[in-house]
């Protein structure tokens, strides 16, 4: 069954694909701006602790369930259930995860399209085509429809190739490119006036803020949701992992990769904000709060690039290519969630399923574009603030309470002898049973306020 479904051909292929799913726009702009708004290095320290104590155990729950089931989220959760109620609950959780992943992709594709448009605007600026650049960077119905279509075509083309020739092949190309662009941009930005103030704000902690409940909840949410948990993406990727692999080691590597990129991105975004401020660009609102993330990316940083002359055009191109790549590596994992279900549970051909589902999601994106003011924010809030936390909670419940302990131990033993006697297994069951659900509920209650 595993061979027919496809598997990742290498350890590094899985790590790059899973890390690519986790490393999206939220890591590149979300984490740095969260840090800048919540005490800088104090937020960073709390985030690092919670990422390992909370996000890693939750990630392992999805990966272990996925590899055991070798199936999509619906079949996997239904398969580990022990009775009629939990089987129905598992299937329902899987279905809601599919819908949530599809809705997230519907608005994610719009934002990913904006990144491509802004990257092309940098090219047209270099070529001396200001009218075209203005059209590419101004909000319009035509631009949004065109570039969400471009972004979805790229996503569909990759998923059509399957696990090895699609997901793994392109993630092993895109992720090194993302890292290279990120590092080059950091090196350049750190040479600019004002960057040192940003570095100090990011790396020198204000220890008095570490116990701030708002900071802790914010860091907890970022740690959990930046790992792409809850909607079944990691479960699906785990289902493509060979039984020969050490699943705990793989999960640890993905967590380190994701955290590393998020923290590294902070070394770009936070110093860039202070460089912008040094160059006369406003980065705080009238109330003294850091401006919103979307305004930062699409207004403040472009204004910064404009103050840098010709070099700014090249930096703008590199930056928005970085953002487009980050968006694409996440979008392919989202599309794989419904596609895997259609192929395995409905017997559809992969290419046909990918085109049909990709087209349906593009249609939803178009509806959001035509009703942007009323629907876009609603869908973002519905999926990320409400659906995703509850799905993450249910994943932990299934891994910690529903799934039989003996079967879990047997699954962990695959790929390495004695792994169930290690430190991970001594800590993980308690975390996934008690700490993770409690933390997710705390985040959810905070979101309701």
Automatic annotation (TrEMBL):
Segments traversing the membrane: 12-29, 41-61, 95-124, 144-163, 175-195, 215-242, 254-276, 310-343, 355-380, 386-403, 423-445
Keywords for the protein's UniProt record, in alphabetical order: Membrane, Transmembrane, Transmembrane helix, Transport
Gene Ontology, cellular component aspect: membrane
Location(s), subcellular: Membrane
Lipid bilayer topology: Multi-pass membrane protein
Pfam families: SNF
Chief localization: membrane
Name recorded for this polypeptide: Transporter
Lineage: Bacteria, Pseudomonadati, Pseudomonadota, Gammaproteobacteria, Woeseiales
């Amino acid at each position: 069954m595993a061979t027919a479904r496809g598997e990742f051909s290498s350890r590094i292929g899985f790590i790059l694909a899973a890390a690519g799913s986790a490393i999206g726009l939220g890591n590149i702009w979300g984490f740095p701006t969260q840090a800048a708004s919540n005490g800088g290095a104090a937020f960073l320290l709390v985030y690092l602790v919670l990422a390992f104590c909370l996000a890693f155990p939750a990630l392992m729950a999805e990966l272990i369930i996925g590899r055991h089931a070798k199936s999509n989220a619906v079949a996997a959760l239904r398969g580990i259930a022990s009775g009629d109620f939990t089987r129905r609950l598992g299937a329902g959780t899987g279905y809601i995860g599919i819908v949530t992943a599809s809705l997230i992709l519907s608005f994610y594709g719009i934002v990913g399209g904006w990144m491509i448009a802004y990257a092309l605007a940098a090219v047209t600026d270099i070529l001396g085509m200001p009218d075209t650049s203005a059209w590419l960077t101004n909000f319009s119905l035509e631009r949004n429809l065109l570039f969400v279509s471009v972004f979805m075509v790229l996503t569909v083309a990759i998923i059509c190739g399957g696990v090895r020739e699609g997901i793994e092949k392109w993630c092993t190309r895109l992720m090194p490119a993302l890292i290279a662009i990120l590092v080059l941009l950091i090196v350049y930005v750190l040479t600019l006036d004002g960057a040192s103030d940003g570095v100090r704000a990011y790396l020198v902690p204000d220890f008095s803020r570490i116990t701030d409940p708002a900071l802790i909840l914010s860091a907890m949410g970022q740690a959990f949701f930046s790992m792409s948990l809850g909607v079944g993406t990691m479960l699906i990727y785990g289902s493509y992992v060979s039984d020969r692999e050490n699943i705990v080691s793989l999960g640890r590597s993905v967590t380190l990769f994701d955290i590393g990129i998020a923290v590294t991105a902070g070394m770009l975004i936070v110093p860039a904000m202070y460089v912008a401020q040094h160059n006369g660009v406003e980065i705080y609102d009238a109330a003294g709060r850091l401006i919103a993330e979307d305004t930062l990316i699409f207004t403040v940083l472009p204004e910064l690039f404009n103050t840098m002359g010709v070099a700014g055009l090249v930096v703008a191109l590199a930056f928005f290519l970085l953002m487009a790549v980050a968006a694409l590596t996440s979008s392919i994992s989202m599309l794989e969630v419904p596609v895997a279900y259609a192929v395995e549970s409905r017997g559809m051909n992969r290419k046909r399923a990918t085109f049909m589902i990709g087209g349906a999601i593009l249609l939803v994106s178009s509806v959001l574009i035509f009703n942007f003011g009323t629907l876009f924010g609603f869908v973002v809030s519905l999926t990320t603030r409400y659906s995703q936390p509850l799905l993450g909670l249910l994943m932990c419940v299934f891994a910690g309470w529903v799934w039989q302990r003996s079967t879990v131990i047997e699954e962990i033993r695959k790929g390495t002898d004695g792994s169930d006697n290690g430190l991970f297994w001594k800590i993980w069951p308690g975390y996934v049973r008690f700490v993770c659900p409690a933390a997710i509920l705390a985040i959810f209650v905070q979101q309701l306020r």
